[in-house]
Write a structure and sequence with these properties.
This protein has 268 residues and is of the alpha+beta class. The protein has 13 helices and four strands. The chain folds into three domains: 107 residues; 82 residues; 70 residues, no CATH class. Strands 2-1-3-4 form a four-stranded mixed beta sheet, with helices on both faces.
C-alpha cells in the first residue's frame, strides 16, 4: 500500500501517462517500456536509491534518469521516468511499484474502447488458473524459465484475447514476485482504476439473466457513485441468493449465509 509522498506521486504520474501518448500504439509502447524500466529498477538497488534520494534536487535525478534510460526508450517513456525521478518518495522501492502500475494503465489504455474487455479477460484467466492445479503449478515452477512459463500461458490463450490482455498476462507470469494469481488480481484492480470503474465479483448459485445483471449493476453503480463492472462466478453450493465483493466490502445475501446465521443464533 502506497503512503504519503509515494501515493501523491502515483496520482500525479497517472495523469501524465493518460496524456503522454496520442495513439493506441503509443500507449502500448509506453506500457511495454515502463514494465522494462520497473524490472531494471527492482534489480538495481543502487540506481533505485539514486533516483529516489529526497536530499538530491529533482532536476539532477531527472537528468540521471534520462542519461540511463533516454536512449533505450521512446521520448514519452523517458519523460514519464524523468518526471517520476523528480518526485518525493516514501520508500525507494515504491518507484518501481509505481512505474509498474503506470505500465498497466498505459497497457489498458492501448486497448481503447475495448478496455473493459481486458478486465473481463483477466478475470476469466485468473479463474481458469484457479480451476486448473496442474497449470497453476507449472506457472509457479521456478525451475522453468520465465519465458517458458509465459509462453505456456500465452500459448494456451492464443489470439483469443486482446493484445493488451496478453501483455498483462505475460508480465504477471514473469515479474518474479508473488504468485501469478495475486499479480492478475492486482492488474485487474488497476485496470478498473484506469477505466474509472469499480469491480464487483458476484457469486451466485445460478446464471443471472441480462436483465438481472443490468439491475444489479445499476444498483451498485448508484450505491458507489461510479460505474461498477460485474464479474460473475457460478457456485451451486450457495443454493440461492447473491454474494457481492467490492474491494473490502462484502454483501452476502446467499441462502447458505442465512442458514449459517440461523445456526449460530440457535447455538447461541
Amino acid at each position: 500500500m502506497l503512503r504519503g509522498a509515494s501515493a501523491e506521486a502515483l496520482t500525479e504520474l497517472s495523469t501524465h501517462v493518460g496524456r503522454s501518448s496520442t495513439t493506441l500504439g503509443d500507449h502500448a509502447t509506453l506500457g511495454q517500456e515502463l514494465f522494462g524500466v520497473a524490472a531494471i529498477l527492482r534489480d538495481d538497488a543502487a540506481l533505485r536509491r539514486a533516483l529516489t534520494d529526497n536530499s538530491v534536487e529533482g532536476e539532477s535525478k531527472a537528468g540521471l534518469a534520462t542519461a540511463v534510460f533516454g536512449s533505450a526508450v521512446s521520448d514519452a517513456t523517458a519523460a514519464v521516468v524523468a518526471d517520476a525521478a523528480t518526485r518525493r518518495w516514501t520508500s525507494s522501492a515504491d518507484l518501481a511499484d509505481v512505474l509498474e502500475r503506470l505500465a498497466v494503465i498505459a497497457t489498458v489504455l492501448s486497448a481503447g474502447a475495448n478496455g473493459t474487455a481486458v478486465g473481463d479477460e483477466l478475470f476469466a484467466i485468473r479463474r481458469m488458473i484457479d480451476a486448473n492445479p496442474d497449470l497453476r503449478g507449472a506457472l509457479s515452477d521456478q525451475t522453468r524459465s520465465p519465458a517458458d512459463r509465459s509462453g505456456l500461458l500465452t500459448g494456451l490463450l492464443g489470439d483469443q484475447v486482446q493484445a493488451a490482455t496478453g501483455t498483462l498476462v505475460s508480465q504477471a507470469v514473469t515479474r518474479g514476485r508473488g504468485t501469478v494469481d495475486s499479480a492478475l488480481q492486482e492488474f485487474l484492480d488497476v485496470t478498473a482504476e484506469a477505466l474509472q470503474e469499480r469491480v464487483a465479483t458476484v457469486y451466485t448459485a445460478r446464471e443471472l439473466s441480462s436483465d438481472e445483471l443490468g439491475r444489479l449493476s445499476a444498483a451498485l453503480s448508484d450505491q458507489y457513485d461510479t460505474t461498477v463492472q460485474l464479474h460473475v462466478v457460478i457456485d451451486p453450493s450457495l443454493i440461492g441468493g447473491l454474494r457481492v465483493e467490492i474491494a473490502d466490502d462484502v454483501i452476502d445475501g446467499t441462502v447458505v449465509s442465512r442458514l449459517d446465521d440461523a445456526r449460530r443464533r440457535i447455538a447461541g
